[in-house]
C-alpha cells in the first residue's frame, strides 16, 4: 500500500467526502459538482484510499495517458481480496468496458465496424417508430392525469431500441431492463454486499439469456448487430456472451439516464422547450450536448496509475487508484477552451463506442416529445438520482398543463 501525500488540510478531505455523500441524494447534482470543483483539481479521500479528480485538464490527461489503466485483476487481487468470488465483477472486469491493452484493442476492433456512421444512421427510422409508439403510451396515461415519463418512455424506448438493434425480441426488453438495473449496481463506487450479491444473480440470468443467443448467431440463425458481429468471428464464445450482455446494459443504462435528464431540463425551463420546439436540428443537438455536459450519464470513471505522475501539482504514485468525476470536470472553465467540449463519453482509447447511438436517440426523441406535448409540465419535484457512478432518477412525474379558463 502507498501512503497518500498530504494534498490538503484535513478539512478539505472531510468536505470532499461530505459532498460525495450529498451527490447520492441530490436531485440536481450541478451545484454539488461546482462545490467539488472549487475544492481543487485533485482531492484526497482517505476513506476510499484514493484520489478524486475534478479538473477538466487532469481528467482528460488521465483518459488519454496509457499509463493510467482500468483497475485490472492484478490490482484487485492486491487491494480487493475476495473479488473473484463475485461473478458480476469477474464479467465486468473482463469486458470491453473495463479491459486494458492489448485485450481492449482486440475486442474493440471487432465491434468498431458496427458503430460506423452509416450503420448507426440506418437506425433512425426504427428509433422514430419506437419513439412514437412510446409517446402513444404516454398520451394514453396522461389522459388519466399524471404519468411517469421514465416508465412510459425513458426506460422502454432505449431498451426496445437496443433489442431491435442487437437482434433480440422486443418483448424481452422488460426482462433485460430489470437484469440490467440489477447488474449495473456493481459499477457503483462502494456497492453494498447485498447489491453485489443481487448483481451476481442478475449476471447469472444475463449469461443464461445471452449464451443461447450467441450460439444461435454462431450457427447462422440470428439477425441484427449481434449476428453480424459473431459471424465475423475472432472471439471466443465466452467473450461474445460477456460483451453481448454488456452491450445491452451500457447501451440501455446510458441512454435511459440521458432521456430522463434531457426531459427534466426542458420541462423545468418551459422557455427552452418552446425555443427548441421550432429550432433547427443543429440547435436541438447543441442543447442536448449542453445537458450531457452538465449531467454526464456515466459520472465517475476509475483508473490506476502504473507510473508516477504529477496531476494538478500533486504527486500520484504507481498503483494509486484515482476516481474521475466528469460532472465537475465538465463545468471547469478549461473545458470551454478544449476542442472536446465535454468528457461525458470519455476520451482516448476508451471513448464510448455507443455515443453516436445515444445522440441519435435523443435527436429523434426530443423533437417528437416537444411537438406532441407542448403543454407538458412536471407534476412533482424531480426525485434524487439513484447512484453516484451512473446517476439516474427512477421516476419523473409529468402532466399536461391546462391554463385557467380553458375547457
Summarize the structure.
The chain has helices at residues 10-23, 30-39, 56-64, 73-79, 87-92, 103-111, 117-121, 124-142, 149-154, 156-166, 173-183, 193-218, 224-232, 237-268, 270-277, 281-294, 326-331, 333-337, 355-372, and strands at residues 42-45, 50-53, 68-69, 147-148, 300-305, 309-311, 314-316, 321-325, 376-378, 397-400. With 407 residues, it is of the alpha+beta class.
Q: What attributes characterize this protein structure?
A:
single chain; 407 residues; alpha+beta; Cytochrome p450; five-stranded mixed sheet; three-stranded antiparallel sheet; 55% helix
Q: What's the number of structural domains?
A: 1
Query: Count the strands?
Result: 10
Average per-residue pLDDT, rounded, comes to 91
Classify the beta-strand content into a percent band.
Answer: 5-15%
Order of strands, widest sheet: 1-2-8-5-3
Task: Provide the structure class.
Answer: alpha+beta
The general outline is globular
How many DSSP H or I helices? 19
The CATH class label is Mainly Alpha
**Residues in helices, as a percent range:** 55-70%
Enter the CATH topology name.
Answer: Cytochrome p450
CATH superfamily: Cytochrome P450
Q: Using the CA coordinates, give the radius of gyration.
A: 21 Å
Low-confidence stretches: none
Amino acid at each position: 500500500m502507498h501512503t497518500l501525500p498530504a494534498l490538503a488540510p484535513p478539512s478539505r478531505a472531510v468536505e470532499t467526502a461530505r459532498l460525495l455523500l450529498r451527490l447520492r441524494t441530490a436531485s440536481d447534482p450541478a451545484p454539488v459538482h461546482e462545490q467539488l470543483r472549487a475544492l481543487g483539481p485533485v482531492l484526497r479521500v482517505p476513506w476510499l484510499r484514493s484520489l478524486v479528480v475534478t479538473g477538466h485538464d487532469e481528467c482528460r490527461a488521465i483518459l488519454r495517458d496509457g499509463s493510467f489503466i482500468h483497475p485490472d485483476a492484478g490490482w484487485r487481487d492486491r487491494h480487493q481480496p475476495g473479488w473473484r468470488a463475485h461473478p458480476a465483477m469477474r464479467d465486468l472486469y473482463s469486458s470491453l468496458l473495463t479491459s486494458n491493452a492489448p485485450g481492449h484493442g482486440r475486442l474493440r476492433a471487432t465491434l468498431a465496424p458496427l458503430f460506423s456512421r452509416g450503420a448507426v444512421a440506418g437506425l433512425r427510422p426504427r428509433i422514430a417508430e419506437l419513439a412514437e409508439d412510446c409517446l402513444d403510451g404516454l398520451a394514453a396515461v396522461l389522459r388519466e392525469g399524471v404519468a411517469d415519463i421514465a416508465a412510459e418512455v425513458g426506460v422502454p424506448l432505449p431498451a426496445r431500441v437496443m433489442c431491435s438493434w442487437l437482434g433480440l425480441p422486443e418483448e424481452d426488453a422488460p426482462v433485460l431492463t430489470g437484469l440490467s438495473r440489477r447488474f449495473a449496481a456493481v459499477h457503483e463506487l462502494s456497492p453494498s454486499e447485498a447489491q453485489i450479491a443481487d448483481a451476481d444473480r442478475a449476471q447469472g440470468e444475463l449469461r443464461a439469456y445471452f449464451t443461447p443467443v450467441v450460439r444461435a448467431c454462431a450457427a447462422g440463425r440470428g439477425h441484427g448487430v449481434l449476428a453480424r458481429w459473431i459471424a465475423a468471428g475472432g472471439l471466443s464464445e465466452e467473450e461474445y456472451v460477456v460483451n453481448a450482455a454488456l452491450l445491452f446494459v451500457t447501451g440501455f443504462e446510458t441512454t435511459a439516464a440521458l432521456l430522463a435528464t434531457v426531459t427534466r431540463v426542458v420541462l423545468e425551463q418551459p422557455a427552452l422547450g418552446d425555443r427548441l420546439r421550432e429550432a433547427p436540428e443543429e440547435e436541438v443537438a447543441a442543447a442536448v450536448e449542453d445537458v450531457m455536459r452538465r449531467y454526464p450519464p456515466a459520472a465517475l470513471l476509475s483508473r490506476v496509475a502504473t507510473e508516477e505522475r504529477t496531476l494538478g501539482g500533486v504527486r500520484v504514485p504507481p498503483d494509486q487508484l484515482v476516481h474521475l468525476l466528469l460532472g465537475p470536470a465538465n463545468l471547469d472553465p478549461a473545458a470551454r477552451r478544449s476542442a472536446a467540449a465535454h468528457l461525458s463519453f470519455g476520451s482516448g482509447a476508451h471513448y464510448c463506442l455507443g455515443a453516436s447511438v445515444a445522440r441519435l436517440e435523443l435527436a429523434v426523441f426530443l423533437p417528437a416529445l416537444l411537438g406532441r406535448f407542448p403543454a407538458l409540465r412536471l407534476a412533482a419535484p424531480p426525485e434524487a438520482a439513484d447512484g453516484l457512478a451512473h446517476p439516474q432518477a427512477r421516476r419523473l412525474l409529468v402532466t399536461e398543463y391546462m391554463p385557467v379558463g380553458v375547457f
